[in-house]
Prior knowledge:
This protein is 56% helix and 17% strand. The protein has 363 residues and is an alpha+beta fold. The protein has a seven-stranded mixed β-sheet, sandwiched between helices. A two-stranded antiparallel ribbon has the order 1-5. The longest helix is centred in the last third of the chain and has 67 residues, at 257-323. It is rod-shaped and about 120 Å long.
Amino acid sequence: MSRKNYLDYILNPLELLRTKKVLHINPTVTNKRKEPEQSSIFLIDYSPAHYESKELASPEACFPYLDSPGITWINMDGIRKSDVDKISAHYGIHQLIIEDILSAGQRAKMDEINNVMFCLLNMIYFNDQNSSVESEQVSIILGKNFVISFQEDATRDVFNPLREKLKLNNSKIRQMGADFLFYALIDQIVDHYFIVMEKLADQIEHLEEDIIRNANKRTLARINMLRKELIVLKRSVGPVRELLNGILRSESELVEERTVKYFKDVYDHIIQANELAENYRDMMMNLQDLYMSNMNLKLNEVMKVMAIVTCLLAPATVIGGIFGMNFDRIPLLHNQWGFFISVGLMLLFPIWMIVIFKRRGWF
């Protein structure tokens, strides 16, 4: 963070924009997303004995895989309306689900329409350059023998470890159905929450050390910044619990009995993530109280020093004021030692006061 005062930090337009982005969300207004500069569609078709992975030149290239005997995973990086409409029309995805995929700023949710299960949740990242939490909306659709995922950002995701597992013939995911792939995608997103939360925990720990050692105006700015990032984190993590609860309560034939226990495991993880987010929020409130206490303590120290200095100078002020009055009859006024006696008293009284203050433990 650059060295500037707190007022300049608060008046920074970029920081005000961040505040508006964090707080101002109207669910009644459909946020239209911009068409991405780059978009790509990747397809993985697999079975216990078969694996195929390729990038598709067009949405139509995935149409033949609807009748594939194996499991098909279609992943779109960078959401384009025309591509979403084509894939959705061929795979029988309802218009309401399409609207959720194309909208932005949606709350995590789960729906089941027309024999497909739809989940929408946020994938979050931690930006090390500006110490901020960034979120990306991810939509995942589970069908009978296929899974379709839509990602906003074409440059990053957290699914690469899952892709590596799919390449292994003896991996568990290759032996299971599409519902297990559906679980694995959600589990990968939830597990990445903890990575982001660990980095936020490091930020909170460093901030606590700074407050204890040397709290200043920039420290308060960092506290406010971290509180905003925790709002983004809580908004992304909190609703996922309801999403997983909806899957567990669903009696859909798309989710096999043997896969339910895996969703219960993810449910336990998201409960833990919610508890950590609440703990971080409480810690930030405690850090703010600690900062205010340190500031008050510093102010009290300054006021104490100023009060002591004022008290020590009071005798000299009184003596100087007495000998400075316009009277002819003042003791020692015309004495050759009068000046030295008055200066001595000005020094003797403060020294005597320092001894008394020290014995009483006032400093």
